[in-house]
């Protein structure tokens, strides 16, 4: 059972791939090495140390793939778009497993291309996620062999002894690439867990000074009635503002601690009333002003129950409310009642919670990446974990969360959950 759980965590549980995408500097380094390396090795293998088969046109195509990493701006976006990630993966599938398997077949599996193919496998596993590398190695082998059978040169077949020797060497290279890929993946996950855990600890440690500030605020408010006139009113306002500040800070700490659970187990589910959950969450939300609070309108067309973590779903509602109110604040006009409409209803076996705001919206590029870790709707101060956390919690309850948005036309975040 423990082995099955461990295998499931490694293979089936999605890792946070976008944050593992190479940095801009690394992509440039890979582009330069690919762009210059292929012409250089063509000179080596064609003129200096001639190999049975070299193809200038194919080398030029591989070099152009490296050049594309330098000239295509979308590939270097961080965090990457889905298109950029696909482009990056395709380029290195073509220049590593496919190309090296092709050259291996064309050169009858000689010592040079046996060593080169083994090195290419290790490089490929280092460049990308181990699952993608495993799939890429297998498909690269298949497509290279099909291409070789269709248009490859006529070369002597490998003898049994050479084929067996090469198989052992390549199997060892593949196995070590897989092991190193798994260990790197686990190390990155542990580093992320440590970082998020540290965020939670630091946020929790702020509770003590905030508690002291809360006591001071209450003391100031209690002393205010002893002073008549304007002085007493100022003390009362000061105490109220300090109390509101502490409340807002505690709310932010709750969010940071919950977001620090991003890659941790969801916990035991409980049966939750959607209407009650949403009502409690928006009532407890620390609005910055009365006008902001009045902008939120809740409509319950029909209650439904679902299974999940109450605390985490409370945080989901908080995160979506916070994002919507920030979007409204960024709009040019002051918020009006109904600018954030929260709707709860059910249809058949599916329950629905929708957050519709009249804020600044978002463009198509941001909308595609909005649920990726460290992609924030608030480019100024957002850490980009809130919506990734929301998606993980909703998915953990076997539900879905999606967004519809356009620039300057607001956004609609819709949660659908199975009715319990």
From TrEMBL:
Enzyme Commission number(s) of this protein: 2.7.13.3
GO molecular function: phosphorelay response regulator activity; phosphorelay sensor kinase activity; protein kinase activator activity
Keywords attached to this entry: Kinase, Membrane, Phosphoprotein, Transferase, Transmembrane, Transmembrane helix
Reaction(s) the record says it catalyses: ATP + protein L-histidine = ADP + protein N-phospho-L-histidine
Cited CDD domains: HisKA
Pfam families named in the record: HATPase_c, HisKA
Stated name of the protein: histidine kinase
PANTHER family on file: HISTIDINE KINASE, TWO-COMPONENT HISTIDINE KINASE
Enzyme class: transferase
Species per Swiss-Prot/TrEMBL record: Ramlibacter ginsenosidimutans
Domain named Histidine kinase: residues: 201-420
